[in-house]
């Protein structure tokens, strides 16, 4: 066996790395291990009593689990896709030479992202109000509707109303990321594309998309994480209602927590982590061309 001794530089390097590793262990690794351990326990308090997959079985047997899973999938796919399309479209538009005052437009569009989440949620809750909301007032004034719409209390409209706010809140992030990527694209490529007679589709497919692949990956992965962990917006607007139509996994965890079912909350948290990893691994494989 080789006698491996650390050099003085390696020892100094370990001293610099150690605090970061300790903080990572305390704030990331230990909580994840603790939650995973609790998800296999029959007791939320006291000593560990191994229960196998009983907690997961109880969640799967719940009549609401299928609805929650469907809501989570719909919420994630729609909000991520819509925010990415709107954000990318905004970035492409603001990158055009005929647009004047681009920095001013970017600043105005960024307001929906930088405003605190609670403020945005309360604002939209007032706007969606069926009694005195600004949205119903404008639609009635334009004769687009005949009577006020219950945006947040209708089981069919509530999820779409909340998703609209989520898209409005997150698309500026995509716009910012894609704008930075577009500004890094050499202008010579556009000139060559013009000489070759390339249209908008050819530019997107052969120039922009390959060069913006890394930025796209970061933007999509961030949107997915935000969507799966979305809580504040949905809770303030609907609290998961009506009739659970806007309840996703993140809210389900809180519902179990409020009911002091900590072992079920832990099991649901592990399920949400698994779902997040599925999305991450799937996109990484696609981005890597495997």
CATH architecture: Orthogonal Bundle
Helix content: over 70%
The CATH topology: MetI-like fold
- Helix-strand category: mainly alpha
Which homologous superfamily in CATH is the superfamily?
Answer: MetI-like
Number of domains: 1
Number of E-type strands: 0
Rg from Cα? 24 Å
N to C succession of SSEs: HHHHHHHHHHHHH
Please write out the topology.
Blueprint: H1 8-39, H2 54-61, H3 65-94, H4 102-114, H5 117-127, H6 134-141, H7 158-183, H8 187-195, H9 200-211, H10 213-228, H11 232-237, H12 249-258, H13 262-287
Helix pairs in contact: 1-13, 2-13, 3-7, 3-10, 4-7, 7-10, 10-13, 12-13
Describe the fold and architecture.
This protein has helices at 8-39, 54-61, 65-94, 102-114, 117-127, 134-141, 158-183, 187-195, 200-211, 213-228, 232-237, 249-258, 262-287. The chain has 290 residues and is mostly helical. The protein has a single domain, classed as Orthogonal Bundle (MetI-like fold), CATH 1.10.3720.10. Helix 10 (213-228) runs antiparallel to helix 13 (262-287). It is flat and about 70 Å long. The two termini are 39 Å apart.
Features:
0% strand, MetI-like fold, 290 residues, mainly alpha
Summary, kept brief:
The chain is mainly α and 290 residues long. It has helices at 8-39, 54-61, 65-94, 102-114, 117-127, 134-141, 158-183, 187-195, 200-211, 213-228, 232-237, 249-258, 262-287.
């Amino acid at each position: 066996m080789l006698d491996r001794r650390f050099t003085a530089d390696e020892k100094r390097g370990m001293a610099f790395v150690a605090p970061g590793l300790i903080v990572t262990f305390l704030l990331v690794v230990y909580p994840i291990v603790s939650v995973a351990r609790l998800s296999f326990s029959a007791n939320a308090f006291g000593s560990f009593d191994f229960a196998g997959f009983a907690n997961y079985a109880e969640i799967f047997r719940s009549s609401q689990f299928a609805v929650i899973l469907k809501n989570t999938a719909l919420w994630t796919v729609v909000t991520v896709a819509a925010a990415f399309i709107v954000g990318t479209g905004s970035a492409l538009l603001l990158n055009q030479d005929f647009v004047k005052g681009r920095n001013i437009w970017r600043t105005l569009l960024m307001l929906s992202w930088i405003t605190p989440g609670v403020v945005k949620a309360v604002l939209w809750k007032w706007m969606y109000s069926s009694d005195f909301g600004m949205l119903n007032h404008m639609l009635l004034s334009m004769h687009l509707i005949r009577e006020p719409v219950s945006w947040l209390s209708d089981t069919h409209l509530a999820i779409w109303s909340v998703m609209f706010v989520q898209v409005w809140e997150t698309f500026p992030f995509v716009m910012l990321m894609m704008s930075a990527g577009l500004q890094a694209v050499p202008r010579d490529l556009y000139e060559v594309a013009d000489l070759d007679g390339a249209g908008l589709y050819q530019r997107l497919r052969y120039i922009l998309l390959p060069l913006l692949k890394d930025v796209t990956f970061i933007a999509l992965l961030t949107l997915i994480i935000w969507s799966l962990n979305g809580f504040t917006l949905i809770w303030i607007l609907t609290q998961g209602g009506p009739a659970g139509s806007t309840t996703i996994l993140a809210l389900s965890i809180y519902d179990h927590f409020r009911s002091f079912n900590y072992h079920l909350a832990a099991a649901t948290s592990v399920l949400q982590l698994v779902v997040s990893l599925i999305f991450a691994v799937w996109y990484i494989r696609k981005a890597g061309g495997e």
